[in-house]
Amino acid sequence: MTHANEGHHISILDVDADALDAHSDAIETIYGAGLTGIVVRDALPQELVRRGVAQLGGDALASEWSYPNAGMTGGEIRVIGDAATPTFTAMRGPTFERYGEGAARHAARTRLVFGEDAHPTQLVQSVLGRLFGGRPARSPAYNGETTWAPYSFRALDPGEQIYSHHDDHFGLAVYERMDAVFDRSTVLSFFFTLQAPEGGGQLVAYGLWGSDPDPPMLPTRFLDTDALERRFVQHVFDLRAGDLVVFDAGRHVHRVTAVEGSRPRLTVGGFLTLDKARTRLAFWS
Ligand SMILES: O=C(O)CCC(=O)C(=O)O
After folding, report:
1. CA of 279 to the centre of ligand 1 (A)
2. What is the pLDDT of residue 207?
């Protein structure tokens, strides 16, 4: 009999937003593989969550959604804003131009989601910065006019999932636009849950690292999730509206299980890394 005990240890901290400052080393510890992730409960005020959910489901934003995995059965995520990752429609990631155009529209789109008077990007800067010892957390310069897009909005509709993957995508051409001061030894993911689904839609992290030899693969060259489930250590996150998660998505294979029920799972997030001197944090979508 086999047990799901293979792979690297997984350790997750689970803290309340008002205890953030007691964990000011969390991000550097995750970056150094001393911790797999941290969940911060109620990191986003409920008023912002409520506005975001209402707007993301409304008509004003209907034309902003794109379908980067169109044609990928069961994995058709909707997004507002591109991610600097491979997708089913762009296996080598977005072009410089396409990413730059989206980044330039980020602030206006974010105002449509959260309202003119909200400052969600400052809030993300503040929360991530506090988990990094109060050092600056910003989106780095992309070109002369704009920065990398700080985050993107994602919707997983009922029946859809995010298949097993890791997020070490620094090899994509678009990362030529990222300053070489930033460490590329791993990348962390962060996201806030805006709306949890009625069932499913859970983030699962496995003990398998993307750099491990002989990962279980399907003939389709996707990771074999059944084998991951059978063999590897895992952690299933229980994330509710307003919660933030930051985790080592560059090393750890992870996925989001299929959404059940009638409403979409809504999240807003991106990636982050640290400069090599550990003086600042960069986050982007
Ligand atoms: O649920 C999300 O928004 C993204 C999940 C994921 O795969 C990641 O954060 O890397």
Report:
1. 26
2. 98
- Tokens representing 277? 């001197």
Cα(249)–Cα(260) distance, rounded to whole angstroms?
24
Rounded Cα gap, residues 271 and 182, in angstroms:
13
> In sequence order, which residues have a C-beta less than 8 Å from that of residue 60 and are 6 or more positions away?
112
Residues contacting 249, CB < 8 A, separation 6+: 166, 167, 187, 188, 189, 271
Range of the domain at 136: 12-284
Residue with CA closest to ligand 1 atom 1? 267
Residues with CB under 6 A from ligand 1: 154, 162, 167, 189, 191, 203, 249, 254, 256, 267, 269
The answer, yes or no, to whether residue 1 has pLDDT greater than 60, is no
- The β-bridge partners of 232 are 6
Q: How far is the CA of 163 from the centre of ligand 1 (A)?
A: 10
| Ligand 1 centroid from CA 176, angstroms | 23
- What's the burial of 108, exposed, middle or buried (CB within 10 Å: 0-12/13-18/19+)? exposed
Q: Which of 155, 191, 187 is nearest to 251 (CA)?
A: 187
Q: Which atom of ligand 1 is nearest to the CA of 156?
A: 1
Distance 116 CA to ligand 1 centre (A): 26
CA of 194 to the centre of ligand 1 (A): 13
Q: Are 216 and 231 in contact (CB under 8 A)?
A: yes
**151: domain CATH number?**
2.60.120.620
Phi and psi at 207, nearest 5°, equal -75, -5
CA 221 to centroid of chain Cα atoms: 23
Q: Which residue has the tokens 């389709």?
A: 220
The answer as to whether 133 is a domain residue is yes
This model's pTM is above 0.70: yes
Averaged pLDDT of the chain: 97
Question: How many structural domains compose the chain?
Answer: 1
